[in-house]
Amino acid sequence: MSATPSTKPAASDTADNRDAPTRCRILEAATALYAEHGFDNVSLRQITRAAGVNLASVNYHFGSKDNLAAEVIASRVNPINRQRLDLLTSAEQLTDGEPVPLKAIVRAFLSPMFSFVASDPEAGPMNLKLMGRCMSQRDLPMSEASLPLFREVTRRYPDAVKRTLPDLPVEVIQWRMLFSVGVVAHAMLHADLLNRITGGASSRLDPDTVMQQAVDFCTAGLRASWQPD
Amino acid sequence: MSATPSTKPAASDTADNRDAPTRCRILEAATALYAEHGFDNVSLRQITRAAGVNLASVNYHFGSKDNLAAEVIASRVNPINRQRLDLLTSAEQLTDGEPVPLKAIVRAFLSPMFSFVASDPEAGPMNLKLMGRCMSQRDLPMSEASLPLFREVTRRYPDAVKRTLPDLPVEVIQWRMLFSVGVVAHAMLHADLLNRITGGASSRLDPDTVMQQAVDFCTAGLRASWQPD
DNA sequence: GTCTATAGGGGGATAGAC
DNA sequence: GTCTATCCCCCTATAGAC
User: Fold this and answer.
1) pTM of the model
2) What is the pLDDT of residues B163-219, one digit of tens each?
3) B226 and A216 in contact by Cβ < 8 A?
């Protein structure tokens, strides 16, 4: 009945691990290394070295290397999908049965992906890269809690768009929503490269500006006219 | 002076290796494995096993594992960038000094990415995935011939768009072109997943259809109105 | 050009002491 | 909970015979 768990702690999204400093340090070190080198190019030894903990502690706290990666990924992806669903619910309540304006749908869908980035100015670039890697990688280790959230997002958002743009076929809506994820994923993954290529003088890396640009681009793309064959 | 090189053959894009079956077999096996498992998750042993050649032959023909990956990547990326430049040149000659219509620019930019996919119906899905991996991966091993092509593409295309949409700031154009790459990259990388999620009945995986959709989406996105802050 | 054999290093996981 | 030590695997690259 103690406040601190006496058994192996369960996976959680909230990272309230103040009483388990090693576990927390492992998560932080793994997060930074995954962002920098990609999920496939980081060894347990790199992680434990960076965290200043013992090699065996990863297997004790997470069970396996894959479980550690799954927890890092879930800590970023699950809150985003929950926020997407909350924002869409709010928008639908505001319009009171009427179709939600397209731009509001797109903003509710894309803006949660930037919430981690804006929260911390120091860790911003790292979070940007990590989010990009999460979204543009196939076959990521996925925790159990992630799948139902994904399914609900992929169900409710096309429905909302369909109510706003009733003439657009559902398959086209689904493709265009996939396109929209690609817009943000690719921008996050290569944001620093664009700055380097273009000289970096004028194009600031301000996440809010990028998000505005992405929302404008995707809203226009979703609204593009469509002619049946 | 013989037709067949007597020394270690140099890297080439055209894959005219009929006289060197092992080298060609290695390239083919590596291509398929990279598409299936990603560039970071394939060992030389897997490649040589699948190709039915000796382990040491990779180092003999390519020098190192990274050089092999670089050649596979260049064999896909370089022709695309060359075709992009050729198509833009053709379009500019057609309009004879006038700005090129936006949709023609977007099509010249995106359609080469689909040329490998459409060419072979059997290897289509593999080429789709490989192209997606090429575009949505950071820090790929790059051959020397790739960089100048990339630079010319990133110079000429924003210029062309600027002539067609003179009111759009260059930085915004660059962001939106990066968005457009993300659209295609993400769609290619996850095309099969979308089919599985949506049931796969109605949304055909026809590459031409997807390309049309991507062109429409990106053209509308590039044309989106933009208000200065 | 192709092969065998091996060097030499890093990988994930775990047993068992504390 | 934490640590050391170790097992056993797979990896890339290369030397040297054919």
Assistant:
1) 0.92
2) 999 999 999 999 999 999 999 999 999 988 776 666 554 445 678 889 999 999 999
3) yes
The highest-level CATH class for domain A15-63 is mainly alpha
Q: Which nucleotide has its C1' atom closest to residue A66's CA?
A: C12
Q: What is the topology classification, in CATH, of domain A78-223? A: Tetracycline Repressor; domain 2 (1.10.357)
Q: For residues B141 and B65, what is the distance between their CA atoms, to the nearest angstrom?
A: 10
Q: Is B155 in contact with A147 (CB distance < 8 Å)?
A: no
* Residues 75-114 in A contacting B (C-alpha not used; CB under 8 Å): none
What the block records as the tokens of A49 is 């070295």
* C-alpha distance from B61 to closest chain A C-alpha (Å): 25
Q: Is residue A142 helix, strand or coil? A: coil
Nearest nucleotide, C1' to the C-alpha of A9? D1
pLDDT tens per residue, range A181-224: 999 999 999 988 776 666 554 445 678 889 999 999 999 999 99
Q: How far is the CA of A204 from the C1' of D8 (A)?
A: 51
Q: Domain map of chain A by residue range?
A: 15-63, 78-223
User: Which of A89-93, B49-53, B97-101, B118-122 is the least confident region?
Assistant: B118-122
Is residue A65 within 8 Å of A86, Cβ to Cβ?
no
